[in-house]
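Task: sequence design from structure.
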């Protein structure tokens, strides 16, 4: 979209927002509430948003996608959350696909990207985290040994979302033992796993019940065979490939948090106008007004950093600091807005029918994942301020 004018881009983005809202309007609060009660996956919504082409926003047109930028992709996810939905059910395709697009070979891209774009294949799972290493990714234990034209994979992953509702998974493994590499970031590789073939043939998926409906699982991998042709990029360079997509992930998560924050602020504002106590609307009281207003201010500020990071990303410029700061600011602001909305609703905020408690749990996740607040502060301390590395 680099050749269009600013006005044309603004008009396009507004049309994009309206289009996403139109899809989301078919899935009211009651839809998400019922899924929450059953810990079920939003199949109908994900299929609908896919068929409308929104999840293929970042896939180039030559592979059947829209060829849009991170700015537009972030708008899509923001609007899903702002409409009361949970884009965590489908957001992974946008940033996991980038590893395949940027580092896959011609045959891999031609084989998978058009099917991901049209929805006949889902790439929604990203297998990195392990029980004993957490965010210390370079020490992960899952190992893939090459034997002829196959890798034999053994290990365990945890908090891997959507594996039960995805056809493909990007899996980060060690292909060279840690003690045999010069730098700890070397010797890691990315494999594209066909989940439909893997389950029951070396891969066992165990659901993990969590405080929110997030389709989270634990993976047990024993002698899983993955064809060598499913290696993404070069063997041993996988850590770089994963990092390459993390800025996109953080920008997109920031947008989701902004969508959540605006949803909370709207709900709190409307309720404060309507709720009458002591013969006056509670929104007339500054003790109710100020937390909502403060949350609004902070959401708007975080939104500026989201756009700053996204524009740098789309321009091909360095944006690690901005992407991290956008995610931190947006996650903090959405959590502040969640607390303001819950407090404004009082006891009704805990009632499922008001949906505050559902969204409250969903947005709390982003203080922890996909990267915790403390790790972002460590990054800024070291890479922006030049302070000594703390770990």
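Answer:
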């Amino acid at each position: 979209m680099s050749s269009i004018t600013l006005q044309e881009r603004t008009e396009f983005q507004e049309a994009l927002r309206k289009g996403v809202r139109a899809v989301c309007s078919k899935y009211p609060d009651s839809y998400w509430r019922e899924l929450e009660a059953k810990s079920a996956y939003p199949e109908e919504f994900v299929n609908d948003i896919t068929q409308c082409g929104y999840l293929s926003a970042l896939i180039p047109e030559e592979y059947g996608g829209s060829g849009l930028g991170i700015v537009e992709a972030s708008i899509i996810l923001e609007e899903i959350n702002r409409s009361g939905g949970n884009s965590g059910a489908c957001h992974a395709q946008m940033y996991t696909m980038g590893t395949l697009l940027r580092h896959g070979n011609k045959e891999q891209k031609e084989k998978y990207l058009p099917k991901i774009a049209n929805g006949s294949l889902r790439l929604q799972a990203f297998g990195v985290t392990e029980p004993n290493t957490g965010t210390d990714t370079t020490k992960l234990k899952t190992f893939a040994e090459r034997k002829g034209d196959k890798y034999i994979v053994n290990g365990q992953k945890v908090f891997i979302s959507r594996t039960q509702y995805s056809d493909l998974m990007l899996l980060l493994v060690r292909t060279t033992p840690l003690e045999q590499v010069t730098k700890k970031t070397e010797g890691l590789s990315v494999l594209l796993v066909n989940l439909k073939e893997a389950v029951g043939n070396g891969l066992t998926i165990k659901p993990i019940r969590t405080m929110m409906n997030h389709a989270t699982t634990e993976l047990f991998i024993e002698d899983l065979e993955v064809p060598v042709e499913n290696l993404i990029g070069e063997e041993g360079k996988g850590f770089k490939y994963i990092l390459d997509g993390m800025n996109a992930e953080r920008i997109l998560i920031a947008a989701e948090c902004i969508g959540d924050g605006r949803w909370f602020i709207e709900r709190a504002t409307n309720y404060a106008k309507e709720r009458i106590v002591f013969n006056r609307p509670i929104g007339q009281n500054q003790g109710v007004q100020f937390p909502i207003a403060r949350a609004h201010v902070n959401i708007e500020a975080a939104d500026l950093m989201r756009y700053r990071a996204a524009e740098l990303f789309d321009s091909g410029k360095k944006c690690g600091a901005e992407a991290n700061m956008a995610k931190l600011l947006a996650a903090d602001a959405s959590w502040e807005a969640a607390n303001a909305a819950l407090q404004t609703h009082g006891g009704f905020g805990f009632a499922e029918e008001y949906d505050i408690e559902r969204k409250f749990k969903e947005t709390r996740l982003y203080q922890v994942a996909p990267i915790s607040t403390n790790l972002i502060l460590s990054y800024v301390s070291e890479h922006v301020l030049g302070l000594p590395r703390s770990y």
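Residues 257 and 277 are 31 Å apart (CA to CA).
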